[in-house]
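Weekly puzzle thread! Below is a chain. First person to post its structure in token form gets bragging rights.
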Amino acid sequence: MSEKIESSTETTTDFLKFAIKRILRAIPVLIGVATIVFILFRLLPGDVANTLAGKDPRPEKLELIRQKWGLDKPAWEQYLIFMQKLLFEFDLGISMISSTPVAYELGIRFPATIELTLVSILLATIAGIPIGILSAYKQHSRIDYLTMIIALLGVSMPIYWLGLMLQSVFFNNLGWFEATHRIDSHLSASLPKYTNFYLIDSFVVGIMEGNWEYFLSATNHLVLPSLALATIPLAVIARMMRSSMLEELGKDYVRTARSKGLKERLVIVKHVTKNAMIPTITVIGLNFGALLAGAVLTETIFSWPGVGGYIWNSIQDRDFPVIMGFVMISAFIFVVTNMATDIIYAYLDPRVRYFKRD
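Winning reply:
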């Protein structure tokens, strides 16, 4: 009994050491990302002060703007000030356009983007993995050809075209789902914003008050944009899962398991699928990050109030603090996603050794 307790304690300690090492390794990555974006932004042609001055580019006004935002200081000094606030105060700065904290501006918009991305990658995973498994198991059958044709079409369709087609069919013609915004306009103001994730907030209202109108409306508005955004990753996940399954099905341990008389379902589900999931997990993680950063078109087509349109406007206005804040939050999410992927690797494949024992 004591040996099991010691083993469990040792495993927990190893996990904490691994987590701390990964977090420490992530810090230089985030600093590097911030540095690169800072340099690239400074290399852009034009003067930020002229953009902020608008139609009144008087020299005295330009000078006041430069002094207010620290643009009159050398680039290296601006960089040090920015990194000091970021690393030691966790301050993303103030928007040059709205004069409000960047953390607040992103905080009220980022949940919408994250909610859309999470639902999309969940739909892509739930549908893509079974399709890949079935296609591999039924290799060279009509099911295999049909699923791969669908996957190829999913990768090939431009997301803006697909979004418009979904709106035309399911909103304009059938009227099944809403095509814009996150919730009905008459419900938006009265929905309690506990987390700014409308699915969570509306679900809480449904549990606490028994009023499910908010949840049904939020779900209805989420269907079309999440389907549009999930199409490409669904196709990629299905193709990767099929390829991994075919590779695993040809290995010796599968023939050995079958020769021992194990049921085919047990061989596929318990052995083959678990090993085939490892490269697929990588694809899921990468697609999650890509969706998070690339949902601008989807948010524009469906008038989704996420960060996509806001960041696009900030780039045009050269609102440096907002751009940097978005990049840093996105980089942080990428790092967390990679860490989660590594942990899932260790669970799926015992041969992956992250914890070095003495």
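Puzzle host: Confirmed. Bonus trivia for everyone else. The chain is about 75% helix and 0% strand.
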